[in-house]
Amino acid sequence: MENAGVGWIAAIIIGGIAGWLAEKVMSSNMGLLMNILLGIVGAIVANWILGLLHIQPLAGWLGYLITGFVGACILIAIGRVIRR
After folding, report:
1. Where does the sequence pass through the membrane (predicted)?
2. CA 78, CA 14: separation in Å to the nearest integer?
3. Looking at residue 1, what is its pLDDT?
4. Which among 83, 54, 82, 57 is positioned nearest to 71, based on CA atoms?
């Protein structure tokens, strides 16, 4: 999150928005705390995947929102596979 140029409070807010968007797109039913966690952990996962692919992660608020959203969608999909 330090590289994204956002602080902890902004990361929580952006993570919550990214998790909520992923929840709506993936038609899942999570609470506020889980949305925040999905958004923050999702951003970490997406940045890790981008690093493996040698792609420069997006910077700033919008970049963090996009990577958090994509990562949260990935985490929701993995969670669905594991539950089956």
Report:
1. 6-22, 34-55, 61-82
2. 22
3. 45
4. 57
